[in-house]
Design a protein that fits this description.
Helix content is 68%, strand content 0%. The protein is built from six helices and no strands. It comes from Plastoroseomonas arctica.
Length: 141
């Protein structure tokens, strides 16, 4: 199938686009909780060193590392776990169904980042430039 070969050739770039977009959106949650940007959370900024504050640090810092494609696999593992914990700790107690508890985003982030644990960063990454990208191959910036 010629179209499969053509699509396969672009998969590292599609994966990189997913990684970059997910990271930018994820970082926005961290900036909201830490700096009130673009708008403060409805509950206000979390106190320093609280669980929500630590989560915000992970969202901003982990999101930045994922955006750059630096230490992608271990960072993605940690923040996928953070999103699983966030879902079960904050969303599921409200209601089991994600559409009713607002946990859709947490679930999607969890599985997007979990995918990156196994695939690596795709193209356009520091890991790729260092020879630690997808399939151990070189996917330079």
């Amino acid at each position: 199938m010629a179209y499969q070969a053509a699509l396969d050739r672009y998969s590292p770039y599609a994966l990189a686009a997913l990684r970059i977009v997910a990271a930018v959106l994820f970082m926005e949650h961290g900036t909201q909780k830490l700096f009130g940007f673009p708008a403060p959370p409805a509950t206000g900024l979390p106190p320093a060193f609280s669980l929500l504050w630590v989560g915000a640090i992970m969202e901003l810092g982990g999101g930045l590392l994922i955006l750059l494609g630096l230490l992608t696999r271990p960072v993605a593992f940690v923040i996928a776990g953070e999103m699983a914990v966030a879902y079960w700790m904050f969303h599921a107690p409200r209601n089991l169904y994600p559409v009713l508890n607002g946990g859709d985003g947490a679930i999607l982030y969890c599985f997007v980042f979990f995918l990156l644990v196994f695939t690596g960063p795709g193209a356009w990454s520091i890991d790729g430039a260092r020879g630690q990208g997808t399939s151990g191959g070189r996917t330079a910036i």
